[in-house]
């Protein structure tokens, strides 16, 4: 949400950083959570 509102970090950069740090097998779940956060940020 904060990344979407502030625009300090691009959506793609944040996605790449998150996916490098999450446990194997949880990438898709975390990608979906990140997408939901960006959607919430766009509403505000």
UniProtKB/TrEMBL annotation:
Keywords linked to the UniProt accession: Oxidoreductase
Gene Ontology molecular function, alphabetical: oxidoreductase activity
InterPro entries: Pyrv_flavodox_OxRed_cen (IPR002869)
UniProt entry tagged with the keyword Oxidoreductase: yes
Protein name as catalogued: 2-oxoacid:ferredoxin oxidoreductase subunit gamma
């Amino acid at each position: 949400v904060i990344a979407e509102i502030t625009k300090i970090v691009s959506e793609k950069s944040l996605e790449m950083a998150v996916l490098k740090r999450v446990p194997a097998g949880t990438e898709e779940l975390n990608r979906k959570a990140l997408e939901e956060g960006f959607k919430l940020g766009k509403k505000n």
